[in-house]
Write a sequence for this structure.
């Protein structure tokens, strides 16, 4: 779980940057870019969930 | 009621319950950050929904610029479209080939003219050159293309019917 902590921090940073870009796009009126940001946010979230599950498995096995 | 409040305040002020301290371990923290990722993801849905909403841009009027036989091949005619302060130019390149652009130079707003000899749209102020085919910049200080006017060839003449959206001209 120590490893996944660092990954999670990385994902959080990426997610926050993506949200910031998305808000900027929205305010600039580039509405056609927004679904791509949504997809990127979803991808990061799903990767986070998968990694959490994987490392939990590893942890439980080690215990 | 008062007992409850008292207990709550005691718990907050004198947090000596060791079991509770263990609640927020590394795994809990990671699960919480995962929750935050999910919240950020779900929070972006309203923004994305905005992309699906159709934009209702005001429809521009159709304005007759010139008759089909009024303009010789290679000639141009100035007109205003869609407003009086938006000078535009209609250019006849071939028998059935017309091009039209708003002629405020995208550099500093000087009026661009059609130079038949060089086959380019030219800005006299700072030597900006635009392609007459699509309004793109060929040379000079301008960074963006000239906004094109959408044309419609009808039986009684050439009509301006709208503006072609250009990358970087979203406001137009």
């Amino acid at each position: 779980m120590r490893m996944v902590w660092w990954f999670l921090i990385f994902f959080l940073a990426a997610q926050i940057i993506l949200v910031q870009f998305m808000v900027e796009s929205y305010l600039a009126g580039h509405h056609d870019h927004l679904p791509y940001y949504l997809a990127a946010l979803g991808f990061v979230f799903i990767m986070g969930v998968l990694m959490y599950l994987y490392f939990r498995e590893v942890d439980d096995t080690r215990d | 009621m008062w007992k409850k409040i008292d207990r709550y305040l005691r718990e907050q002020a004198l947090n000596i319950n060791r079991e509770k301290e263990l609640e927020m371990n590394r795994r809990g923290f990671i699960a919480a950050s995962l929750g935050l990722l999910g919240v950020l993801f779900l929070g972006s849905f309203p923004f994305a929904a905005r992309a699906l909403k159709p934009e209702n841009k005001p429809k521009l009027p159709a304005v007759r610029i010139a008759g089909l036989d009024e303009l010789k091949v290679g000639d141009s005619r100035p007109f205003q479209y869609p407003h009086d302060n938006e000078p535009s130019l209609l250019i006849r390149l071939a028998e059935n080939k017309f091009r039209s652009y708003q002629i405020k130079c995208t550099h500093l707003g000087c009026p661009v003219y059609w130079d038949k000899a060089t086959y380019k749209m030219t800005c006299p102020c700072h030597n900006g050159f635009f392609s007459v085919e699509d309004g793109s910049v060929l040379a000079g200080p301008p960074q963006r293309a000239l906004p094109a006017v959408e044309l419609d060839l009808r039986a009684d003449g050439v009509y301006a019917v709208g503006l072609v959206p250009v990358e970087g001209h979203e406001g137009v």
About this structure: The first strand of chain B starts at residue 63 and ends at 66. The interface with chain A takes residues 26-27, 29-31, 33-34, 36-38, 40-41, 43-45, 47-48, 50-51, 53, 55, 170 of chain B (CB under 8 Å). The domain at 63-164 of chain B is CATH 2.102.10.10 (Rieske Iron-sulfur Protein).
